[in-house]
Model the fold of this input.
Amino acid sequence: MDFMTSKTRENLMRAFAGESQARNRYTFAQAQLIAQKQFMLADLFRFTADQEKEHARIFYDHLKQNGAGDTQIQAAFPVDEDSCDAVCLLESAAAHERKESCEIYPAFAQAARDEGFAQIAQDFENIAAIENTHGKRFERMAQLLKSGELFAGGESTQWICLNCGYILEGTQVPQNCPVCHGEQGYYIRLDMADWGLYR
Ligand SMILES: [Fe+2]
Ligand SMILES: [Fe+2]
Done:
């Protein structure tokens, strides 16, 4: 299949545009959350934004290596509501991640496989799996925030300050870290401190 007339060329450009925009939306969300002193959630968006940049690069490299040149696409891309608060940012990010991982990239992978671009198909599949973890992580944070469990739990739990690294044990996190005096928003449940746990 000639790459220049393939659906895969278009799909790669759509994916590049989608990843690039997700990276920017997450960076905007990070700034919004920093302003609200929700530093841990801001860091989750930064962490994820950096990964979206890498996804964008992988798709862009395929376009470059196949000599795509100017590539026209027609697609809809999301815009968050103006009044979006922390829960809304997390939920809207989770919904977009889910759409990418469950619908868009599996379809792009199938098209690439049908057109004979096995490596591109593999990359769409691998990145779909990553977006699945992104979606679950955002969703879990939204749940904790909504239920008031982001900084408090029924049982005694260990929490870590992402600013200074202090680990405390208790049923809730104080307003300020006892060691660095940073805001509560720096804290995360220790068992969630490894973002990679959300698979
Ligand atoms: Fe991505
Ligand atoms: Fe993602």
Notes: The chain has two domains: 3-146, 152-197. The chain has a mean pLDDT of 95.
